[in-house]
């Protein structure tokens, strides 16, 4: 059992190009796990702010100056030689051309087709998280009608949306089965993935890609089903912790802003959202009263992206 003071704090960078490629570095000879690939970064000095450590390490290792970086996820991993806590930032703007100043190799890769190996063991969940798109679309057919909802989904996936949740709690099972099948067929034509809210059986019947657990269901399960993509709705720290313990693919945290469906509900606001997701090991989508224009704000506060219902079309 390790003591918290024994954890090595590390600032790690997901340096991202406009085409979605990100930079990996191969550890040089003489370091633990020499020859393994990892995200650039390094140890945080005592009392050093994380972002300062990130900028310092990238200047020393790669010769680049970080102009814009967003806090993202935090992963703790125990190696034979040390326990490390990796604070990941997504670096989206920098000055200079990355150059290996410490005898490491560099390679630009893509999350859905990483062509270098071996990767450090701590990075497998990070690569899966990077494969999640920035926008999570949620259906609203019972309010707008199934035809209009399908039109909205078509418009969203044609515009690049790659993750859709079928969430229709008031729909009859028969109608939901038909609707879910139509959404799956439509989304798959554009390379988008579909999650079904709460119903594992329907998820499998409809050929969907994953399951999304409502918060009440989340708190009553002890392990994940054999489904690759699992999301969860959360509203507080306890529910986020449960999602982490179960190893969910991602979480959705709400409501951030006032919503049309629940105008009187107490909202988190961006400051509380940032506090709750800080240090979280899962990518977290912000939900509640949000539009596409709020995406950058979500990134600035540690979110992976935004989830939208009424604004998807």
Automatic annotation (TrEMBL):
CDD domains: NUDIX_MutT_NudA_like (cd03425), TMP_TenI (cd00564)
A Gene Ontology molecular function term of the record: 8-oxo-dGDP phosphatase activity
Enzyme class: hydrolase
Reaction(s) the record says it catalyses: 8-oxo-GTP + H2O = 8-oxo-GMP + diphosphate + H(+); 8-oxo-dGTP + H2O = 8-oxo-dGMP + diphosphate + H(+)
Keywords: DNA damage, DNA repair, DNA replication, Hydrolase, Magnesium, Metal-binding, Mutator protein
Superkingdom field: Bacteria
The protein's required cofactors: Mg(2+)
EC number(s) per entry: 3.6.1.55
InterPro entries: Aldolase_TIM, MutT-like, NUDIX_hydrolase-like_dom_sf, NUDIX_hydrolase_CS, NUDIX_hydrolase_dom, ThiamineP_synth_sf, ThiamineP_synth_TenI
PROSITE patterns named among the record's database cross-references: NUDIX (PS51462), NUDIX_BOX (PS00893)
Signal peptide stretch: none
Single Gene Ontology BP annotation: thiamine biosynthetic process
Gene3D superfamilies from the UniProt entry: Aldolase class I, Nucleoside Triphosphate Pyrophosphohydrolase
Occurrences of domain Nudix hydrolase (ranges): 5-134
NCBIfam families per the UniProt record, alphabetical: PRK08999.1
Membership in a protein family: Belongs to the Nudix hydrolase family.
Protein name, per record: 8-oxo-dGTP diphosphatase
